[in-house]
Amino acid sequence: MKTVLVLNGPNLNLLGTREPAVYGAQTLADVEALCTKACAAHGFKLDFRQSNQEGVLVDAIQEAGREQTAGTLAGVVFNAGAYTHTSVALHDAIKGSGVTAIELHISNVHARESFRHHSFLSPVVKGVIAGFGVPGYALAIAALAGMA
Question: Quick one: which residues bind substrate (predicted)?
């Protein structure tokens, strides 16, 4: 059984309390429960992580690339948070590792501040899901299942 890595970046540990009008009332624990259910429905195991540290996220992406090469990982659902708009290091980690990744945003970043309109990740991921709220995670997992 292959694994899906759901990787969450900075401030996503604050879901449920941080700007609920933008991100909703669901917590990161609620997201993990939804991802567990979605992975099970597609025959995947879940590896669910969150970090506020860019280097930890780079390490996780590189590890995921090795796991995908070994045939044990289906891909990564990556909500990089603010690092989406700033991190060349995460871009390089995805590109360099060759991992199949889907960029995910809970909010519609294109309907928000202009600095959120540019993504360093979009050029190196398989697809982008934005604006569907927390259910977007299940959509991303289904997309990975469709690629397997």
Answer: 79, 85, 92, 106-107, 116
